[in-house]
Design a protein that fits this description.
The complex is a heterodimer of chains A (458) and B (495).
Chain A lengths: L4 E3 L3 H14 L2 E5 L19 E5 L6 E5 L4 E4 L5 H10 L2 E2 L13 H6 L7 H4 L6 E8 L4 E5 L11 H5 L7 E9 L1 E2 L3 E8 L3 H12 L5 E7 L11 H7 L6 E8 L1 H16 L13 E5 L1 H13 L9 E7 L5 H10 L4 E5 L4 E7 L5 H7 L3 E7 L12 H5 L24 H6 L9 H14 L15
Parallel strand pairs in A: 1-3, 2-3
Antiparallel strand pairs in A: 4-5, 5-9, 6-10, 7-8, 7-9, 11-13, 11-14, 12-13, 15-17, 15-18, 16-17
Chain B lengths: L7 H4 L2 H11 L5 E2 L2 H4 L16 E3 L4 H14 L3 E4 L16 E4 L6 E5 L4 E4 L5 H8 L4 E2 L12 H7 L6 H4 L6 E7 L5 E5 L10 H5 L8 E8 L1 E2 L3 E9 L2 H13 L6 E6 H11 L9 E9 L1 H17 L4 E4 L3 H12 L1 H8 L2 E4 L9 H15 L3 E6 L4 E8 L6 H18 L18 H4 L2 H14 L39
Parallel strand pairs in B: 2-4, 3-4
Antiparallel strand pairs in B: 1-2, 5-6, 6-10, 7-11, 8-9, 8-10, 12-14, 12-15, 13-14, 13-17, 16-18, 17-18
Helix pairs in contact in B: 2-4, 9-11, 10-13, 14-15
The chains are: A alpha+beta (458), B alpha+beta (495).
């Protein structure tokens, strides 16, 4: 099969390539920086169709930036790092704090994956900041949605469909993003040595205060804290690499410091008794620079390295469900974990492709996504603890969830487990699946764009 | 405005419709006498009136589903109705349809403060959610001015805003999950109790879909800890443009106030007559700025904001020093809409959003149109986010005045689009702005939206006649639709 790389560096070029693919009955894998290319299913490995790469990394540049209107209009292939520097010059930022996962990360990639950083539970997700867009659909039509103002209810909110659709509906060619002032300063309270359960309980207690925390994470013991700016955090976890329970407050320096101290006082003292955080845990307050470096690390998951042959998974659940899910993931073979968003976001690294993670996610009331796999991960399998995951058969499988060519070598591996082992995203309920499929066909009826990236038939 | 025209074939099914509804719901939940239907002949836009064939009051999701299914079988359109407070004719009943009033589904099902959420039925009022949790120090952030009466289901359908949107977002930014009934009666849940959902953002596209995609039967809202402190500043200006500049300066200084509201001379006069809150009658404009958050941050911001307002030309600045004073500063603004009744028999409220920088241009244009049409205009703006509410004063008893107001309103909204803004910031398209949609969107854009409509409701029975200038049949839009889980590409690789 011929697999060309096509340059989609203008609206016209993107449209031309999509129309050509439609005519030839071929498909396209849409790539910009490629930093999130292993998020979801490998489009080309999974299909026998001819799939060319549509490279939109040339679709760059700021079209319009009006700090006073709080909007940035840019082409989606523009690298995130440069955009963030431009915003910082004006004292502004993307409040959703998008993870980069690599130097080549682009704005469009972060939006397409709806990837949001630690501030998500306070400031909203990527999807809350995309105000408008221009895109070419899988029909080859140029479509605009939303607008260039922050308050707009005119027609359906199509911007929401662009975020988190992983390029399976349309290829964005211009985006309007809400930008917000960056806080003057910040502080981070670190409690060291708490168990996951106690750490999580403190995060919940902090989320209930009026001190407006904007980061609430728990790094179980063994988190990797080396890198510039992380010395203070590493010292807080020393000597044995203790767990760190972290709470960020942002604002004018005096306000941030005062609120950090209030959090220490209220939360260490037990805070909300009902939540029952244990007393104790050595306390450190990180100053501005150390705090910024710490949360950049949490955002980029550097405390949670993914080694060769391993896979990285992301679980979204209710905040109070996080720790119990984490425990069950350990039971299913997870090697390392971190908790963000006050417990509502669990990151886990597994050796190879674990079976049963989707059942565990469903049982916890959330869903799982495979975000990254090491270069050889696709060839490896894992056999530990997978039987547990499918005992109660909570996983709802649909006829189209048969997956890849992954083999699960679990001693107790059931047919259910092996059937779902390679699925990157937890299957949807039948009703949701029907609506997702209808939307896919509405925008991309010939399945030209990133076929299979999210779900086998999307 | 030409109201949606009833189809005789549907009107002829009236008896069958009522008997089908009585077949799935108890008699007390089905209204069909002329008298009982009267409260449902118009929503918050009294200029548009139409009585439905029947109104149902389902008490739970399964009743909604059964009634919807029955209407699907009879091919009868359905209009979901929350509290009827909407300002775009979005809940206008259809003469050949049935209105589903959700007010009996008014229970708060669960409050979970550790997860900072509440699960509520759609008929619960916006304010009731805050009232339930405020003693614990929490609240539900979006606060449309009708919050005492409007329902959360209606808020979701219209993606309602309020005065605190710039900082806390609108409805769509404050939801976690929904349960909905599709037009064939199927019940689907989207989102949940975590922050991110799997699959496409169905929650996002359902929010603000104006009852055209599904009937909302349950809502999971995010709750926020109540800000420790809120303080208001009222600044008086010699010209509206100065107030507009002050807003830009506050934002440029890196502040995102909880609310920023501008009122012009006529609006000040009217509210002062009505609410007597001590606003400076005769001033060209006032700007209200509310700073809220942690005590340490607000104390830091107050002097900075005062300085900015002074530099922007404020001739007088009042700052609240107590909760009582803060409420008094807001009292006039909160009464602005009802106050119009004192100075005019009728008013028509516009809702465009513009880039803030275009405010002087838009004000000049509105003044010009006011002269051209001979109608007075009072201006109230959510200045922080550029959302304008010009109130066009008219008298519906004077023949032709309503039409004049409508025509003038359309000119204002088109001008909003011309300066880079949009037709509606928080009230929705509904019946009222339907015909202007093609001014803001091209054919491809509208077709894409209609394909979304068809993805959820290919029978097009949910709230037809709203939002789109012309509703294409789904088949005309050239798409395939999936029924009963059948897969459209039987030959593709099932990987």
């Amino acid at each position: 099969m011929s697999e060309a790389t096509l340059a989609g560096d203008s609206l016209e070029a993107v449209q031309e390539h999509i129309v050509a693919a439609l005519e030839k009955g071929e498909a396209l894998e849409v790539v910009a920086g490629g930093s999130k290319r292993s998020y979801g299913r490998d489009v080309r490995a999974a299909s026998k169709q001819v799939i060319s790469v549509l490279d939109v990394s040339g679709l760059t540049g700021i079209v319009d930036y009006q700090p006073n209107e709080l909007i940035l209009v840019a082409r989606p292939g523009t690298p995130l790092a440069g955009l963030e520097a431009t915003l910082a010059d004006q004292g502004q930022q993307f409040a959703f704090e998008p993870p980069h996962f690599g130097e080549a990360a682009t704005l469009g990639g972060a939006l397409a994956c709806n990837l949001s950083g630690p501030r998500r539970f306070k400031a909203g997700a990527a999807r809350d900041h995309l105000l408008g867009f221009q895109a070419v659909t899988g029909r080859g039509e140029v479509v605009r949605g939303g607008g260039r103002v922050v308050k707009n209810v005119t027609g359906y909110d199509l911007s929401k469909l662009m975020c988190g659709s992983f390029g399976t509906l349309a290829v964005m060619t211009e985006v309007v993003v809400k930008v917000l002032p960056r806080a003057e300063s910040e502080r981070t309270v670190l409690f060291a040595g708490l168990s996951d359960a106690h750490g999580a309980a403190r995060l919940i207690a902090a989320s209930r205060t009026p001190h407006e925390p904007s980061g609430l994470a728990h790094l179980p013991s063994g988190a990797v804290l080396d890198g510039p700016g992380l010395e203070a955090a590493a010292a807080a976890a020393s000597p044995n690499g203790a767990a760190l329970t972290a709470m960020r407050v942002e604002g004018p320096a005096a306000s941030a410091q005062a609120r950090a101290e209030l959090l220490v006082k209220e939360i260490q003292g037990g805070g909300n008794g009902a939540s029952g955080p244990a007393h104790g845990g050595a306390v450190t307050i990180l100053e501005e620079g150390d705090s910024r470096a710490f949360w950049a690390a949490v955002r980029e998951l550097t405390p949670l390295p993914v080694k060769e042959g391993e896979t990285l998974w992301r679980f979204s659940v209710a905040p109070t469900a996080g720790v119990a899910l984490g425990e069950s993931l350990r039971g299913a073979g997870a090697l390392r974990l971190t908790y963000d968003w006050g417990g509502a976001l669990v990151w886990a690294v597994f050796p190879g492709h674990p079976a049963g993670v989707h059942a565990l996610a469903s049982r916890a009331g959330g869903h799982a996504q495979r975000v990254r796999q090491g270069p050889t991960a696709a060839l490896k399998t894992t056999g530990d603890g997978t039987g547990k995951a499918t005992v109660d058969g909570t996983e709802t499988s649909t006829e189209n969830s048969t997956e890849d060519d992954t083999v699960v070598n679990s001693a107790e591996g059931t047919a259910e487990a092996s059937k779902n082992a390679g699925a990157p995203f937890t299957e949807l309920s039948p009703g949701q699946h029907r609506l997702n499929l209808n939307l896919k066909l509405a925008f991309d009826p010939a399945r030209v764009l990133n076929p299979g990236r999210m779900y086998a038939d999307i | 405005m030409i109201l949606p025209q009833p189809e005789p074939a549907r009107l002829a099914k009236r008896e069958a419709v009522i008997s089908a509804l009585l077949g799935v719901l108890p008699a007390e939940c089905v209204l069909h006498t002329e008298e009982a239907l009267t409260p449902y002949e118009c929503d918050g836009v009294p200029a548009y009136r139409q009585k439905p064939m029947a109104v149902v009051h389902p008490r739970d999701t399964s009743e909604v589903s059964r009634a919807m299914k029955a209407m699907h079988e009879l091919e009868i359109p359905v209009v979901p109705w929350g509290a009827g407070t909407g300002l775009s004719g979005g809940a206008l009943s259809l003469a050949d349809g049935v209105t589903f009033a959700m007010s009996r589904m008014n229970r708060i099902l669960e409050v979970d403060l550790d997860n900072r959420l509440a699960v509520v039925q759609p008929g619960v009022t916006n304010l009731a959610i805050t009232q339930r949790v405020q003693h614990e120090g929490f609240y539900y952030a979006p606060d449309p001015s009708s919050q005492i009466a409007c329902s959360i289901g209606g808020n979701v359908a219209e993606n309602s805003g309020g005065v605190h949107c710039l900082k806390y977002g609108v409805t769509t930014n404050n939801l976690l999950g929904l349960e909905v009934v599709l037009s064939d009666g199927e019940v689907v849940r989207v989102g949940g109790r975590g922050y991110d959902d799997g699959g496409f953002d169905l929650l996002g596209v359902l929010t603000g879909s104006e009852g055209l995609l599904a009937i909302i039967t349950e809502v999971t809202v995010r709750l926020l800890p109540k800000p420790e402190v809120a303080r208001a500043l009222l600044a008086v200006f010699d010209e509206v443009e100065g107030a507009g500049q002050a807003v830009a300066d506050v934002i440029a200084a890196g502040m995102i106030p909880g609310g920023m509201e501008i009122m012009d001379k006529l609006a000040i006069e009217a509210t002062e007559q009505y609410a007597k809150s001590g606003y400076p009658v005769g001033a060209e404009a006032i700007l209200l700025v509310e700073l809220d958050g942690t005590a340490s941050e607000v104390e830091h911001q107050i002097p900075a904001a005062e300085e900015i307002l002074k530099n922007a030309g404020a001739t007088e600045i009042r700052i609240s020093n107590s909760e009582e004073e803060r409420l008094r500063l807001w009292a006039g603004r909160k009464a602005a809409f009802p106050a119009m009744g004192r100075i005019s028999p009728d008013y028509y409220c516009m809702d465009g959003t513009i880039p803030r920088a275009a405010l002087p241009k838009m004000l000049a244009l509105i003044r010009g149109l006011s002269e051209k049409y001979g109608l007075r205009v009072a201006n109230v703006f959510h200045a922080g986010d550029g959302n304008l509410h010009p109130l066009l004063l008219y008298d519906s008893n004077v023949p032709g005045e309503l039409e004049k107001a409508e025509e003038m309103g359309a000119e204002i909204l088109k001008a909003c689009v011309d300066v880079g803004g949009v037709l509606t910031g928080e009230h929705g398209v509904g019946t009222e702005k339907r015909d202007l949609m093609s001014y803001q969107f091209g054919e491809n854009d509208l077709n894409a939206m209609q394909r979304v409509k068809c993805s959820f409701d290919d029978s097009q029975l949910l709230n037809p006649g709203k939002m789109f200038p012309q509703l294409h049949r789904c088949a005309e839009l050239g798409r395939m639709h999936i029924h009963g889980g059948k897969i459209p590409f039987p030959d593709i690789e099932r990987f």
